[in-house]
Amino acid sequence: QVQLVESGGGLVQSGGSLRLSCAASRNIFTINIVGWYRRAPGKQRELVATISRVGTTTYADSVKGRFPISRDNAKNTVYLQMNSLKSEDTAVYYCNGLVGVNDYWGQGTQVTVSS
Questions:
Q1: Contact 82/18 with Cβ under 8 angstroms?
Q2: Residue 12 to residues 8, 29, 71, 115: CA-CA distances in angstroms?
Q3: Per residue in 58-96, pLDDT tens?
Q4: Could you tell me which residues are beta bridge partners of residue 34?
Q5: How many whole angstroms separate alpha carbon 63 and alpha carbon 76?
Q6: Taking a C-beta distance cutoff of 8 angstroms, is the pair 22, 94 a contact?
């Protein structure tokens, strides 16, 4: 099992930045893929970005070039740096960890971008 705890959400003006953190309860090398997802009001959950155990990254087109994902292996933490935020980025952001065939979710952190 793995527990994931997100932090770093909040209220920010359009064009601003936030950095989300996802802290894992186990060695992050044992998690195959860590991903950030988001759910905006009235919309389905969507994938934002992922980073694999070996550092391969993927991004949704809507955030490519704005939201780099990274990891700090020593801290067992994955980050999502959110730059040039837009009102449409407002959502609850969730961290997900894939271990074997099991995936684990954090509790989510709210990001609100005011225009």
A1: yes
A2: 11, 32, 23, 9
A3: 999 999 999 999 999 999 999 999 999 999 999 999 999
A4: 51, 97
A5: 24
A6: no
Q: Provide the sign of the torsion angle of the four alpha carbons 8, 112, 64, 82, taken in this order.
A: negative
Cβ atoms of 53 and 33 within 8 Å: the answer is yes
For residue 69, what are its two tokens?
């994902």
Task: Enumerate residues 6+ apart whose C-beta is below 8 A from 61.
Answer: none
Which SS3 state, helix, strand or coil, does residue 88 take? Answer: helix
Amino acid, single-letter form, for residue 91:
A
Give 31's contacts (C-beta < 8 A, 6+ positions apart). Answer: 2, 24, 53, 97, 98, 99
Q: How far apart are CA 111 and CA 65, in angstroms?
A: 19
Burial of 104 (0-12, 13-18, 19+ CB in 10 A): middle
Q: Convert the pLDDT of each residue in 13-48 to its tens digit.
A: 999 999 999 999 999 989 999 999 999 999 999 999
